[in-house]
Design brief:
The chain has 296 residues and is mostly helical. It has a domain of 92 residues. 76% of the residues lie in helices and 0% in strands. It has nine helices and no strands. Helix 7 crosses helix 8 and helix 7 crosses helix 9. The longest helix has 40 residues. It is globular, with a radius of gyration of 20 Å.
Amino acid sequence: MKIQEVTNGHTTKISLTAISAMVAETATFPIDLIKTRLQLHGESSAVRLVSEILRNDGVFGLYKGLSPAIIRHLFYTPIRIVNYEFLRNLLVRDDDCSLSLSSKATIGGLSGVIAQVVASPADLVKVRMQADSRMASQGLQPRYCGPFDAFNKIIRTEGFRGLWKGVLPNVQRAFLVNMGELACYDHAKRFVINNNIANDNIYAHTLSSIMSGLAATTLSCPADVIKTRMMNQAADKQGNYKYRNSYDCLVKTVRVEGLKALWKGFFPTWARLGPWQFVFWVSYEKFRQIAGLSSF
């Protein structure tokens, strides 16, 4: 009976996490699109970029690549969130005790790595479809007409392993993001509650999500830039790639564009992570309360 209760609890958490992630992703996806385009093509103004997208593609142009992003989060977010909570509770059985920030960071990073390996193909398709939106606005033929077409073409031209192109920088980014996001949210929330700054409510969730978003962005932005460029590149007619590996991409980016290029898209990234986490954590905590589960 106890095993069945644990299984049902995990199933409920997975479902609630997936729903909350879809809500957050849909709400903040246009910011992610802008961030990706800034990193890939070097546009200097987010305002100019938004104006261009609206002028050429309309409002729906801001949601180019949403479907693979949703597919990604059906795997990525439940795995990392539920796995983090499981490992945290496994290591701390006494309610009066708490893990150190470094321990939470390690658990968060490892949970993110596992989740990202599983979700990397959907992330690859999302990045390429976002890049395609710029090609379409310039009158060029997009590479893909939808997520399933993208999966099919990538497998046919680059092989099944091609779906995991850029997985190394992807995993590196996932480790850093979740190390900052999960550990900081968990730690900040308990700090806010234990010091009577706020109760376990939307105010505590908002403060915690802002702090965790800033920490995650600062740590992960360089890896995010490298990951985006590695995943978007395709072989030329001779079968050669612009970047041999993530280190080569790092060196060439810094050499050509300077060290600051590694934080290109920092503010759009933080502007997305903050609202994303706010929408996600507020929704998730509320859904848990409705389902009769304890707070995260």
